[in-house]
């Protein structure tokens, strides 16, 4: 089970632009 | 071609659309002790994206909405919470309490934080030693 912090980090990372 | 760091000065969105730009801006915000503002902005975008993805569990959305609420909104002294209007905070609290998870529930808060960055931290960043040294 993901901890809340992991979930948040995953969410933040998913919103970042991918390397060009 | 225009070097990336010149593009960063065009708009906040140009800056937040570039990995190196985000990294440098975050370093600056960390120095100013307000990196949470940027993390919150991305968390809101990520939350909307999650909703748009098929196959994501409702439970995960609820857990994430709660996590964002708890970390950035609940503490009235937090840097993010202080920049968000009371009515906007009540709206989000209401959504979380009633388990009414909506893809747009953080949109207004994100807009308020974005306006604050555009008017305050972003112009300061463009004048900061961190940015000037990088260029």
Compact description:
The complex is a heterodimer of chains A (20) and B (135). By secondary structure, chain A is mostly helical.
Structural class estimated from helices and strands of chain A: mainly alpha
Helix count, DSSP H or I runs of 4 or more residues of chain A? 1
Secondary-structure element sequence of chain B? HHHHHHHHH
Distance between the termini of chain B: 15 Å
Rounded mean pLDDT of chain B is 94
- Report the principal-axis shape of chain B: globular
Proportion of helical residues of chain B:
over 70%
How many strand elements of chain B?
0
N- and C-termini, Cα separation of chain A: 32 Å
Q: Percent range for helical residues of chain A? A: 55-70%
pLDDT under 50 segments of chain A (min length 5)?
Answer: none
Low-confidence parts of chain B: none
Give the helix/strand layout.
The complex is a heterodimer of chains A (20) and B (135).
Chain A: H1 4-15
Chain B: H1 4-7, H2 12-16, H3 19-31, H4 35-52, H5 58-73, H6 79-83, H7 86-97, H8 107-127, H9 129-134
3D structure, described in words:
The complex is a heterodimer of chains A (20) and B (135). Chain A has one helix at residues 4-15. Chain A is an all-alpha fold and 20 residues long. In chain A, 20% of the residues are buried. Chain B has helices at 4-7, 12-16, 19-31, 35-52, 58-73, 79-83, 86-97, 107-127, 129-134. In chain B, 74% of the residues lie in helices and 0% in strands. The longest helix of chain B has 21 residues, at 107-127. Chain B starts with a helix and ends with a helix. In chain B, α4 crosses α8 (107-127) and α5 packs antiparallel against α7. By secondary structure, chain B is mostly helical. Chain B is globular. The interface between A and B is medium-sized, with 16 and 22 residues.
